[in-house]
Amino acid sequence: MGPADRRPPPETQRLDAFVDAAFAFAVTLFIIGGNTPPTGLADLQQALLRVPAFAAGFALVAVFWLGHRRFGQLAPVRDGLSVFLSLAIVFVILVLVYPMRLLTESGAHWLSGRVLPGGDLIATPQDLQAVYVVYGLGFAGLAALYTLLFHRVGRRPAAAGADADGAAQARTAARIWAVITLAGLLSAATAMIAPIARYPYAPGLAYWVIPIGVALLGFAGRLRAPAAELPPA
Residue 12, by phi and psi: left (phi above 0), alpha (psi -120 to 50) or beta? Predict the structure, then answer.
């Protein structure tokens, strides 16, 4: 019976429930109505214009939640360090959600040709630069926590209740999250040195490192596959 078939102990279930609740709360901070509920049709229309930005923020939070969910499937048993890393993830996501909301709403405003709301959130290129740096560093820090979580399962599978296949999957996940960490750092560095007034989108382009890096990791993994696992010519 592999770790995916085992029922996690009660303390693990409580920890995962707490993490799930924290991610759910983070999603509520993207609520389309802003800080106050709509009080009329005009407010409702304005709130609905925030749906694209809400969808983008929701997707980003969901990616991180799914990452922790995958960790939970591979590691039904947690030690003290794993618990600490999970709690650190909760802390960082609740901090990161604010710059994330600024960027998603401002980005939706810019991409829509200033039709969608969000143009009043970032006033100057210097403000945009600061938000990019804060978000990039927070994004990188959050991804680094996931890298450590999966790396620990890959290095110590028995302590996490993982089998050999789960350990291999954890090592692959750790490499992917390392690429995600690199993208956040590259975005923050780009924001620090790029002329934001001329190229406000430049730090965002750094996140293309993620799909490119994941594709390269997949290609490298296929090259390392044993000949017995390759399909016959």
Answer: alpha
